[in-house]
Design brief:
Chain lengths: 135, 166
């Protein structure tokens, strides 16, 4: 099992993203142009279920399948949070895709998503280059 | 029932199932949901001699669960489309399958990779996982994601690009 369970968890997430149509350019554009509420409702209900789960996990002191305490490291709030977030938002609109859906699009047979993936890897590389300067 | 499964799933089914990924990852995997770290991972694995601290300091061998997870995303896409979809519809507009379109995806992809790494997360890591944990940084990041996307939509409209690929 070990790492294979992450393949299964990823498969679950990939199926749900695909069936939710979150991996469709058209749904992303409809969200940003306020043509339909679907994606806002998907994110909203997803967070509701996620938040309730995190609350219960903490409240009941649940442990992982391996018996470890559940660890949720916080993320630092800095300039990159909003500046990087804004740049990602631009890319989200331009490609009609966010990171998870890039992989699911490839699986769904939309091979042009390889350009989005190569771009994202280049972007991460540029960030690695600039990190000493921008934090 | 089976027939409904083959159609797109409505938001009230899909949204909660996406949210369920959070406890599944925490309890079964002991990990926080996040996808954009895979970009760092792949860069670190592909460029082991880059000498860049951001890639060098990342133990990609130790974090290989990350790669298994995104491989699962690809597999999930295959299964959902091949077995669970009655009428597959295009995911990207037809006009994108050109050289210009490829450059558009490449350029937008660069913004995605650079932006998500600078912000330390994407829609999964911040907008789903981080918000579920009521983290302030994730709220700021999510607002910034939408500020960026809506700004692009506004520019798109002002430039009258609406007709191109919707």
């Amino acid at each position: 099992m070990g790492r294979l369970k992450f393949l299964l968890l990823g498969t679950y997430f990939g199926i749900v993203l695909t069936k939710a149509q979150v991996i469709s350019w058209y749904k992303i554009r409809n969200m940003f142009f306020f043509r339909e509420p679907d994606l806002y409702l998907i994110i909203g209900s997803g967070v509701l279920v996620g938040a309730l789960s995190v609350f219960l996990i903490k409240r009941l002191g649940l442990r992982t399948a391996e018996g470890e305490p559940v660890n949720i490291p916080g993320k630092v709030l800095n300039r990159g949070t909003w500046a990087g977030g804004f740049l990602f938002g631009l890319g989200w609109f331009i490609t009609g895709t966010c990171p998870g859906p890039i992989y699911a699009q490839l699986g769904s047979g939309e091979l042009w998503a390889i350009f989005t993936l190569v771009g994202a890897l280049l972007g991460a590389y540029f960030y690695a280059l600039l990190k000493p300067k921008i934090g | 029932m089976w027939r409904a499964l083959l159609e797109p799933w409505p938001w009230y089914v899909a949204g909660p199932l996406i949210g369920l990924t959070i406890p599944l990852m925490l309890l079964l995997g002991g990990k926080n949901l996040g996808i954009s770290s895979s970009f760092r991972h792949l860069c670190a694995a592909l460029l082991p001699k880059s000498g860049l601290a951001y890639l060098r300091d990342y133990g990609w061998r130790k974090e290989s669960w990350n790669l298994f997870f995104v491989a699962g995303l690809v597999l999930g896409g295959i299964l959902a489309t091949r077995l669970l979809t009655a009428h597959p519809t295009p995911l990207l507009p037809p006009g994108i399958h050109t050289v210009t379109g490829a450059l558009q995806l490449l350029g937008g992809g660069i913004l995605i990779g650079f932006g998500t790494r600078w912000a330390q997360g994407c829609t999964s890591g911040h907008s789903i996982m981080g918000l579920s944990n009521l983290q302030k940084a994730s709220l700021v990041a999510t607002l910034a994601f939408f500020a960026g996307g809506l700004t692009a939509a506004l520019i798109h409209t002002l430039l009258g690009l609406g007709g191109r690929h919707g």
